Amino acid sequence: MTHHGETTGSSNNDDIAGRKGSNRPAARSAHPTPTTPVQHLAPSAYGGDLSAQQVTLRTPAELADALPYLLGYRPEDSIVLVCLHDRDGRGRFGGRARLGIPANPDDWPSVARQLAQGLVKGSERRGARPEQMVAYVCQEPSAGETGQQVMERLRPLVQQLRVECGLLDVPVIDALCISDGRFWSYCCDIKGCCPAGGTPMGLPGTSVLAAAATYAGLQVRGTLRELRARLIPWETAAVPDQEAALDTASLTVVRRILDETSRAQVAEETLELAERLMGRLAAAPPAESTAPADLRDDELLTHDEAATLILGLQDRTTRDRAAEWMEGDDAAPAIRLWRALARRCVGSYGEHAAAPLTLVGWVAWSTGDDIEAREALAMALGADPDYLFARLLHQAVNEGLDPESLRRCLRAEREERAQDDEAGPDGSRNGSSTSSGFDSGADRGTDDAPPSGSVARPAPAPVPAASTTLRRRTRPGTPASGTSVARPLPKPSGSTRPGDGRPGRTRPGDGRPSGARPGALGEETARRRGSRTGDGRPAASGGTEEDA
Q1: From start to end of 104-200, where are the E strands?
Q2: Per-residue pLDDT tens digits for 427-439
Q3: Spans of biased composition, class Polar residues (predicted)?
Q4: Is 270 exposed, middle or buried (0-12, 13-18, 19+ CB in 10 A)?
């Protein structure tokens, strides 16, 4: 069984998105008796400033209402642990971790142990061991079940959470079940405080915390299910047509990528097509909400265009160059395009979604949306568990690293390519073609502003010859010569720049090259950056939470 785990902030940072410098909400004890936590409300990934705001939480109702603001979305079928740190006699919320509730109760002990140990040890690595915890379980009733029955059914899970946290000397001061618009406290023994039928949740947006969040410009999303719906493949009548387009494109695109004489041309055509489609999306009128916006974007892409892009992005050098659309005016149309492509990976092409989903995660992380970044990267790993770029980015996001280090590397690589393109084979700056022999049009340079309404395309890079091997997948009824691309296998090591053809090592037994791959800037940079903490020290292995 796969459980999705995540953290929504670092325990030693002062805001929900893991950034420093903002105050957090306060959490006073869940019940009137103990004197405990208070916290400042912090901005989520969507910005806002609550540095002058302080919200004190004193009751279970206020703790239950705070959960969406702590996570940035409304959890479903989830176990959530929230750290509390004692500062001058007042508690502050710290790191948060979430896992899905396993359907099989036999899995509950291991999940509780994973969640508690991951959060506490992750907080210790960041130098802020929690003193206490607040636990939440959130699940809607199944058919014929009541919220109270959900609460009783999940009681053993909550008890296991309390035991595991207790073994780590971090007591759970309150544990809440949220179901069917009501909440229950597993820790309250005050007569008349928490009725057996549960306490109704307040109307969304009516609490003091909600008012403070609104004033600060914070946004709370819907549910993770709604977020995933923007990224999962179509299940519509258009699926056969899209799959047929992928089949047709694979007959030509794959063969051309495998051919060293045409691979550079395929990369240029893929990026040029992506550039045109991003301009088309940017010019479209805005939609009122996400669902109409996604439908509008789907209508702006033809089946053939989507198929060509999906297959072209299986080349990792091309994908890494596409990752340079990561900020500024390029980021919004880029992430819309990558989402639309992920939705087009239908039928037997589900594994191909790893590339566009990873690009969604990268652009989301680069623009400050850690929630979508985690979800997209987790889905990329679900499509292809061995997709290294997604794995490294997922770990970096969960570790609370700063994406700016990777952005700087991508900018530097783009600028270096532009300089190489301007210099001729003899080193003179004559704007001739790249070393691969393909006319890159580098006379534009990277500092020129793009035409109005257009998207700046990453500068072309020479593509190494014969450096990619594509794994074959033969579909029933497809000729042997027509092969669709799952993804390129690793390229020879010893180089992180396109065009460096030094041989790499070979793993015993599989014959595949290992190590760095030419042009795989994203993976290699993420590997280097993801292995260190913000102060330059090597980070401990594993994140606070990860996909189990």
Answers
A1: 132-138, 172-179, 182-185, 199-200
A2: 554 443 333 332 3
A3: 429-438
A4: buried
